[in-house]
Write a structure and sequence with these properties.
Length: 253
């Protein structure tokens, strides 16, 4: 098993433009390689049923469950205060610039840009600052990634991938939106100079490390691009007319 990379889709049934499983399936067709099942407010039975439905459309081994209970799976994504569960091979955590990054395999850093999903949430870190904060921990950029240029900027900064909610969930055409973002990220990642990309590390490599971070902009003095790489898996390029996930797509984080 590897850590997440490329386009990672976060679910939100309340903002989805269509039935959640259909939106996710379309995003996967467009190049999304990983999906994070959120919906933490659902009763256990409904959440496990949704897990099973998503497993049918998500690539094998690429469904991550948000929260410390993996629902019988082998990957979890934790909030800042969630305990690390025992016996789960792949563990990620949401970070915002002040939390310790030890004990997990990868982190999401947010918000990278201002986000319509959480208005006023921030301040925005920016892709380069996020890379410095992450140090050697594989990281996903999250928040406000709604255009090809932003996806490419995150790739150039050394992100392993981009974690996207609103720009996929609210899109009138989630497959096209996913193809745009995944393709832009993959193209920019392929242009990173040799040796500047993120390393291919096995799950568990980041656990027990000392990669804590200071508050605000006072992160560790490490070079950007030291995380883990991943391919977006999207095919084809994109035109200037598609440079922003918009045209009625209800973009956001």
């Amino acid at each position: 098993m590897v850590t997440p990379g490329g386009l990672v889709v976060l679910t939100d049934r309340r903002s989805a433009a269509g039935p959640l499983v259909e939106v996710v399936a379309a995003a996967v067709r467009g190049g999304a390689g990983w999906v994070v099942l959120r919906e933490r407010d659902l009763p256990y039975g409904r959440r496990t049923a949704l897990r099973d439905e998503l497993r049918a459309v998500v690539p094998a081994g690429r469904l991550i469950v948000a929260g410390p209970d993996p629902l019988g799976g082998d990957a979890v994504h934790l909030a800042a205060a969630d305990p690390v569960p025992a016996g789960v091979p792949l563990v990620g955590r949401s970070c915002h610039g002040t939390e310790s990054m030890s004990g997990v395999d990868y982190v999401t850093l947010s918000p990278i840009y201002p986000t319509a999903t959480k208005p006023g949430y921030g301040p925005a870190l920016g892709a380069r600052e996020a890379a410095v904060l992450a140090g050697t921990v594989p990281w996903l950029a999250l928040g406000g990634i709604d255009s090809a240029s932003r996806a490419a900027e995150c790739a150039a900064a050394g992100a392993a991938g981009i974690a996207v909610l609103g720009a996929i969930m609210r899109a009138a055409d989630p497959e096209r939106a996913a193809r745009l973002l995944a393709g832009a990220f993959a193209a920019a990642a392929a242009e990173r100079p040799a040796g500047s990309g993120v390393r291919d590390t096995a799950p568990g490599a980041g656990r027990g490390g000392s990669a804590g971070v200071g508050g605000g902009s006072g992160g560790p003095d490490t070079a950007p691009g030291a995380g883990r790489g991943g391919s977006a898996g999207a095919g084809g390029g994109f035109s200037g007319a598609e440079a922003t996930v918009s045209a009625g797509w209800e973009v956001s984080a």
